Amino acid sequence: MKGNGPGKNRGCGGLITASPFLVPSLIGLAIFYLAPMLISVFISLTDWNGLDRLFADGFMRQHYIGLENYRSILTSDEFWKVLGNTLEYIVLYIPLMLLVSISVATLLSRQRKGVGVFRVLYYIPVLTSWVAASLIWKTILAPQFGAMNNILALFGIKGPGWLLDEKWAMPAIVLVSVWKDMGFFGLILLSGIIGINTSYYEAAAIDGAGPVTKFFRITLPLLTPAIFYVMIVSLINSFQLFPQIMIMTDGGPNGATQVMVERIYKYGFRYFQMGYASAFSWILFVIIMLCTALQLRGQNRWVNYDS
Amino acid sequence: MKQLIALLLTLAMVFALAACGGTAPAPEAKPAEEAKAPAKAETPSEAPAAEPVTITYCNFNANGGQEGTLDEMVAAFEKEHPEIKVQVETIAYDDYFTQMQTRVAGGTAPDCYELNIENFAAYANKGLLAEITGADTSALNETALNAFNVGGKQFGLPESFSNVILIYNKDLFDAAGVAYPTAEWTQDDLQQAAEAIRALGPDTFGIWQPITYNEMFKVVAQYGGALLNQDKTAFTINSAENLKAMQTLVDRVTVSNVQPTAEQAGAMGDWDWFMSGKLGMIPTGIWAFQTFTENCEFDWDIVVEPGSTQKATHFFSNCVVMNPETQHAEAVAAWLAWLTGSTASADIRLAHGWDLPALKDMDALAAYLQVTPPENKVAVFDSLNYLVMPPVIEDYAKMCDIINEKLSAAAAGTMTVEDALNAAQAECEAQIKLG
């Protein structure tokens, strides 16, 4: 009755009505996110140790060191090693996770009896806390008495030292992360599959297409928006890799699983170099921004939005 | 609409700033409230005598079972000092140091609190602690007291101590036909016994001494080495003595295999191995006594750790410190001195089997000796004659992490001991400024 114009009006009026309800969460957002972020910019320009009084008079005068933190991070071997470790994780994790999640989603999209039970089962790891899951996996991956190597031994395979072996520690972390995340990403992809119009499949069936052709010619192309979303989220998560590392390896063996957030935590709270840690966080932020921007830019080449 | 959002955000920021600014006056507000209370009572004649000051005390050590013991101590102290009230806050160890860091930086630190030795060094060097003056420290163990003395100023009082002795499985020694360890033993005797026990079976091991920073600074001292030079101005991590010491430890894993490799050990820790009856010897802390008494189905005893060219034993101590911003320095000093050095406090501590008070006079600890096993409990006190202190520097945690990283590579056999120590030396020199 009222057409387009009032619709816009209603949005604004809605906001005024909603604002009293929004204020509490906005205050939370400002205090716990915006203010610390803003403050951390200044901290990253100082040699603050995390203990001295932050709002004391002359704080900046005493502690300001300009871009020294950024310079020393970017010129340290450690940063590049840690970035390399993070990239190793990403390169192993994302393809494997996509493969597993798409398989899970495809399997769970079939209308079979009991599929609901399996949908729940695959989602349970997602709901498990990282701390509990990491502790259990640590036992499973124990070289001699762990379940993993004993199962491998049944097939005559001598399993590696996993978390104790420099070469295998990161792959082990990747395996555990894929196990934990496949339910979550599988669920997103599942909703993508369910959202595909069934008439495409019917048309393909009439043309004589088999299940494999259907999957590669219909499901996969039309799933690209969901895959794209999964890739962006999982890349950001990968850069922020932390709890599983902290509990399963603590950065070891011999630094093989030291990653960016682990370093930030250690510098801030263990080595008392909060300025350095803040600068490290901002470098991480920039890296994530750049990667996400690149992904957004590249999406036109492969993401298919007409379903 | 945009204006409205901007307005809301500004509002939120103002709230945020107000909240930040609000933290500073908080500690002052408390005493003011306390002062009001007696004033209301309208008995001005009695007021001066009965006006207790309240001090706040934070700790982690009472967490997990000894909260009641600490309460008992506070009650005993308040009875002796009716003019002082102690408000205790006990925080779990895992959260404690992050919490203290935030509170100290935010100006809301308690009047006094507990620190472990690593954090003590960092806090003292950053000028965040007050010198404790006017406290009677004559009853305290001098080594322990000195550990918390920086540049002639007493910044902390040792609250408790624990040390490390060699615990051994008597049954395995009998089975292997080896005489029990004595206080005269050296690392060579230990090696021979370990080999005899290892020969008992494929899953039986002689010793487990973790190849970590914590063992390293002690074992190198047994070989006359150290991680830093005398005046703590240079690292000496890869010295010849240190190399010899660490090579001995690593060879026990990789060459004679009297100590399990990480793979052989599996998910079981060193204590689990000992309690399972498959480990001959374990150098570990006196805090293991309770657990071993409950879980070991064999006879075990203790002895002062064997050395090499000299003996050296571990000593761990937690201390209590004073916040320089406290309004009640005298009351705090009285509480800290009582908590650490009084016999009343020591008696309560011992009665509940908490850790040992760091007292000079061992007679006060007679009750402790009577609890067995271990039979040879006096070794706990004999060990105190050979104490080495951890090489405390400002960047202590970083040094630990660097050394641990390299040692784990050496223990896993992916690096030679020499390369590991050289690498640790180079990294410490590059990343840590001394002096």
End-to-end Cα distance of chain A, whole Å, is 31 Å
Number of domains of chain A: 2
* CATH architectural grouping of the largest domain in chain B: 3-Layer(aba) Sandwich
In oligomeric terms, what are we looking at?
heterodimer
Distance between the termini of chain B: 58 Å
Number of helical segments of chain A? 13
Described by the principal axes of the CA atoms, the overall outline of chain B is globular
Which class do the helix and strand fractions of chain A yield? mainly alpha
| The CATH H-level homologous superfamily of the largest domain in chain B | Periplasmic binding protein-like II
Order of helices and strands of chain B: HHEHEHEHHEEEHHEHHHHEHEEHHHHHH
List the total number of helices of chain B: 19
* Number of distinct beta strands of chain A: 0
The 3D shape of chain A can be described as globular
- What is the CATH T-level topology of the largest domain in chain A? MetI-like fold
CATH C-level name of the largest domain in chain B: Alpha Beta
Q: Helix- and strand-based class of chain B?
A: alpha/beta
Description:
The complex is a heterodimer of chains A (307) and B (435). By secondary structure, chain A is mainly α. Chain A has two domains: 1-36, no CATH class; 71-301, MetI-like fold. Chain A has helices at 4-43, 59-63, 68-74, 77-109, 115-127, 130-140, 147-154, 169-194, 198-206, 211-239, 243-248, 260-270, 274-298. Chain A is globular, with a radius of gyration of 24 Å. The model of chain A is unreliable at 1-8 (pLDDT under 50). With 435 residues, chain B is an alpha/beta fold. Chain B folds into two domains: 50-161 and 316-370, Periplasmic binding protein-like II (D-Maltodextrin-Binding Protein, domain 2, 3-Layer(aba) Sandwich); 163-314 and 373-431, Periplasmic binding protein-like II (D-Maltodextrin-Binding Protein, domain 2), CATH 3.40.190. Chain B has 19 helices and ten strands. Chain B has helices spanning 2-22, 26-40, 67-80, 93-106, 117-125, 142-147, 170-176, 187-198, 213-222, 240-254, 262-265, 270-275, 289-295, 329-341, 343-351, 366-370, 378-382, 396-412, 417-431; strands at 53-59, 84-90, 112-116, 149-150, 153-154, 156-169, 205-207, 279-285, 300-303, 315-322. In chain B, the strands form two sheets. In chain B, strands 1, 2, 3, 6, 7, 8, 9 and 10 form an eight-stranded mixed sheet that branches. Chain B has a two-stranded antiparallel sheet with strand order 4-5. In chain B, a hairpin with a 2-residue loop joins strand 4 and strand 5 (153-154). The longest helix of chain B has 21 residues, at 2-22.
